[in-house]
Amino acid sequence: MPRMSRRPSDFIDGSRLWDRHMALARFGARDDGGVDRPALSGVEADARAQIVAWGRELGLRPFTDAVANLFLRYEGRDPSLAPILVGSHIDSQPTGGKFDGVFGVLAALEAVQAIIARGERPLRSIEVVAWTNEEGSRFAPGMTGSEVFTGKRSAQELFQIRDAKGITVQQAAEAVLSRDIDIPQRALGFPIAAFLEAHIEQGPVLEKAGIPIGVVSGIQGTRRYRVRVAGEAAHAGTALRAERKDALMAAVRMISAIDRAALEPADTMLTVGLLTVSPNAPSVVPAEAFFSIDLRHPQDEIVDRVDSEIRRITEVEKGSCEVELIQIAHARSLTFASEVRAAITRAAQGIGIPSMDIYSAAGHDARQLHYWCPTGMIFIPCHEGISHSPKEWVEPEHITAGARVLVDTAWDLATSKPPR
Length: 420
Ligand SMILES: [Zn+2]
Known about the structure:
- By secondary structure, this protein is α+β, with helices and mostly antiparallel strands.
- It has 12 helices and 16 strands.
- The strands form 3 sheets. Strands 1, 2, 3, 4, 5, 6, 14, 15 and 16 form a 9-stranded mixed beta sheet that branches. Strands 7, 9, 10, 12 and 13 form a 5-stranded antiparallel beta sheet that branches. A two-stranded antiparallel sheet has the order 8-11.
- The structure holds zinc ion.
- Zinc ion binds near residues 89, 100 and 199.
């Protein structure tokens, strides 16, 4: 009888992978079941050491770099070829869960373990990666490990960013790196054949559709703004309404009109999450209102249209006040490499796991890597789309399915013929 050759996905051990999630969640565990693991903190260094230990048990060689990105290398048959990188991040928001980021790193480790168990070496080396400071909650902004690696930001610039206590990234990174024993530092920005990031969806689409695998087509475009409306403080009882420069009333008119301008199409994401008023006293006409705008959509044309509406509306609705609109971030929408998306879809089909194309609503390290090498992402469902919360939850069967699709995709990419 002809023997069917077994795929790497046949060697994925779902319960081992689940147990590692629970083990890693102890580093920075919160009383409510969540995780608080700031980038470059002591608890993150502990979690990092645990991952290095797991990697060493498999014979993987750890490497790091100037910003403490962590790599675990499984050597391919031709070590001179650019490696496939697979991973995500292990830092969390202060009210984080057990799966955001961690799933991508542990699924990558499980993938390499499955490939080793199967017994055939890939052509290219495969490296598990944990990028430094994806979340940006301790050191803002986020995605800086991958940003510095890909040369979009210099390490010197990153090093100067401080946390709320005044500690710089450089000091925190040095503290983490000083704990590394026998982990060589490599240069930033080496050639990569492809990058794969598995991640929880952080949205409700897959769960609602009952589909365990999302083949991420791209990341939606974003613009973020800060708006300062300057009026004049006055007595709430004596200043005539018509003569007031009421900064809050002007801001409210702006926010309301901007909200209406972003109603269509229905998947336009528009959020005003920050609003401060000063002097913020009940009997004083507000002298200043300050608010944020967060705008996102998969199509740049939509983002750009709402952007011009925001600029028009803030001028029209300011009335007798002054307005200052500053765009603090602008990221174009992006579409991941078709060959990587096709490889993910093929891998899911090959093992009979249903998949669908899906857009990423949130940013990921894959955004930075997209400009460096062919890149793709695999999403799995999370309960009610909740993340950045102790309530974040993922079904064990989806963790397993994600790792199975990840390993077959990684194997496919790592055995495809050069040049790439
Ligand atoms: Zn994440």
